[in-house]
Amino acid sequence: MENSGKMKSREYCSYLSFCKVNRFRSVRVFLRRRVHLNSFIPGGVFSAAILSDGCPQIRAFAMVVRVGLIVGGMLLVPQICPAQDSDVSGHYLAHFSKRVLTHHYYCDGINAGDINQDGHQDIVAGPFWYEGPSFLMAHEFYPAAVIPTEPSPSNSMFSFVYDFNGDGYPDILVLGRVHKHSAYWYENPGRGSGFWNRHFVFERIRGESPPFQDVDGDGMPELASHWDGQWGFIRPDRTHPKKPWSFTPVTEKGDYNQFYHGTGIGDVNGDGRRDLILNDGWWEQPSKDSPGSLWQSHPFRFGEERGGAQMFAYDVDDDGDNDIITSLNAHGWGLAWFEQQRISGQIIFKKHLIMGDRSEEEKFGVAFSQPHALDLVDLNGDGLKDILTGKRMWAHGPTGDVEPNASPVVYWFELKRSADGSIRFLPHRTDDRSGVGVQIIGRDVTGDGRKDILTVSKLGTFLFTNQGEPE
Ligand SMILES: [Ca+2]
Ligand SMILES: [Ca+2]
Ligand SMILES: [Ca+2]
Ligand SMILES: [Ca+2]
Question: How remote is the CA of residue 449 from the centroid of ligand 4, in Å?
Answer without folding.
Answer: 13
